[in-house]
Amino acid sequence: MSGPNIILLKNFFQFFNRLSGKYLGLLLLVGLCILASHAVAQKRNKSSEKSEREEKKIQEATFYFTEGVKYYILEDMEKALMLFNKSLEIDAENDAAYFEIAKIQIGKGELDNALVNAARALELDPENKYYYLVNAEVLTRQSNFEQAAQMYEAMIQKIEGTNEYLFDLAALYLYQDEFEKALETYSKAEALYGISYEITTQKQKIYLKLNQLDQAIAEGERLVNEFPGEPQFVIALAEILVSNDREKDAIPYLEELLEIVPDSPEARLMLAKIYEETSDSQKALENMEVAFSNPELTLELKLDLIAKYLKELPNEEVEQRCDSLTDVIIATHPESADAYIVKGDFYNAVGKSKEARDFYLQSTEIDDTNFNVWHNLLTIEFQDLQETDSVINHSETALELFPNQGVLYFYNGAAHAANKNYEEAQYALEQCKQLSNNSELTKYCNVYLGDVYNALEDYPKSEAAYEAVLKIEPTNVYVLNNYSYFLALRQQKLDYAKKLSTKLLEIEPENPNYLDTHGWVLYMTGDYKQARKFLEQSIEKGASSGEVVEHYGDVLFKLGEVDEAVKQWMKAKGMDDTSDLIDKKIADRKLYE
Fold first, then answer.
1. How buried is residue 591: exposed, middle or buried, by Cβ count under 10 Å (0-12/13-18/19+)?
2. Which residues contact 417 (CB under 8 A, 6 or more apart)?
3. Domain of 450?
4. What is the DSSP letter of 262?
5. Residue 102, SS3?
6. Is residue 122 one of the residues assigned to a domain?
7. Residue 463 located in a structural domain
8. Other C-beta atoms within 10 Å of 177: how many?
9. In a domain, 176, yes or no
């Protein structure tokens, strides 16, 4: 071994011994690269006698280059760059140094400088494929796709073993919309490597871009014939046919595939989609059921498909499909909470509240950590089923899991209020207000707190709660009704109560309950004739509450029509919601308040 190589190896292995284990494999490779990069210098030394000065010059250049590589590995690019430049000052024909400098400049974004150094490296060694590649990289980064393609062309033509870069060359042609050249390049790659999905897909995209549908289909057919029974290739061809309004042409390919691979869920779904679009709903459902019964088709995909169908409701055909497919999901994934949730979502979407509640509950037996399930469950029980005892029990269970969710306190409080557990209701609703950042939820808390505080005879808080609602929603009929009615019962702020009940009727003049409220407010103000008018309208509009009829009797008594008043009290007695004084009124033929 000649002098320069001995010094190079000595320096290399001294550095090697100082490095930690994580650099060893990389450094061995770098060392070999360094030796290779100086092969030309070695040949010069062997082929001719060198003066001592020339040998020293080469050794010094090699030393700086080697040091530069060390710092490059350690990612100290500024120091590496300085050392590579120092090596070039001594040996201006060190192609490897130009190459390394170009790489550093690429990393720094100095593309123009990088191109100069990359070009110089290639000029010095036109047989090194990496020099072509670094030139092509810089040109591509500069969006100079034409010259980058020329660089690949030259490399592939000149250097053996570089055909793998045909794919990069084809991509550059595509950037330039050189579709014919791209096709030609992919065909060359195909001749070398055989038919493949990747090459075929790229060629199909180009043909479709050129509006050459038949050629794109032909490419897909070649792939299917080359690899019979491969679902991916058949489905890809079917998708092209379907997306170009040739659904019926896709059916034979899919059916032939299913003869070979009957359990292919992807093919089943594709067939189902085609049958949906061709209005053969029965075949569509049959194929969907087979696909959904395959556990290899992910539950996530099945749920996504059902979610899309739910958006199409109401639709009788879609409803039947969802009902069947959600059953299949449960049968195929019986241990998944999501399977029961999606069934609950379906029943909830079609208004089957009890069934939805039951499936949501089943899901919680498997996994009780889904907050949305508890929310849906409580909403159904409170609003649709009005099962307040269940709401209380389930909201308490949910609060153990999600103690910071205000809406759970709301349902708990609202259900307690409905059950006349006013102290419990007050606590839960106040907790909801403290936790909630949702203005709508806070409003509903105040709606119920107005009633609760009134029942607890905390009238200032009751009025404050009602006023908070009316401040943001002046037309809230529930609050206008209850607020005015409770004021009338307490015989407080009667002018304000009349104003509220008048506004109530402006919003819903035909509502029998609101007519009764306004009539009762008028009664409390002593306007018995007007009170009679509105109470009679309430009864005519269908009021069926004993309270309304009793009120009507009270008004008649005030107007001196005692017999008619007793008659109305007796009628009210056979109805719901009368006062505790109804029997005494009838027995004594006298008004008690």
1. middle
2. 425, 429, 448, 451, 452
3. 391-473
4. T
5. helix
6. no
7. yes
8. 10
9. no
Q: Which residues contact 491 (CB under 8 A, 6 or more apart)?
A: 524
Residue 457 inside a domain? The answer is yes
User: Which pTM value belongs to this model?
Assistant: 0.71
CA distance 566 to 559: 13
Give me the DSSP letters along 523-557.
HHTT-HHHHHHHHHHHHHTT---HHHHHHHHHHHH
Give the Cα separation of 347 and 364 in Å (integer).
17
**Residue 534 scores a pLDDT above 50:** yes
387-424 pLDDT per residue, tens? 999 999 999 999 999 999 999 999 999 999 999 999 99
Residues 131 and 138: beta-carbon distance below 8 Å: no
The pLDDT of residue 292 is 96
Sign of CA dihedral 38, 99, 149, 165: positive
The mean per-residue pLDDT over the stretch 267-280 comes to 88
Q: Give yes or no for a contact between 452 and 469, defined as CB atoms under 8 angstroms apart.
A: no
How far is it, in rounded angstroms, from Cα 277 to Cα 298?
Answer: 24
Buried b / exposed e over 79-93, threshold 16 CB at 10 Å, is ebbebbebbbebbee
Q: What is the CATH number of the domain that holds 432?
A: 1.25.40.10
**Number of domains, the chain:** 1
CB atoms within 10 A of CB 30: 19
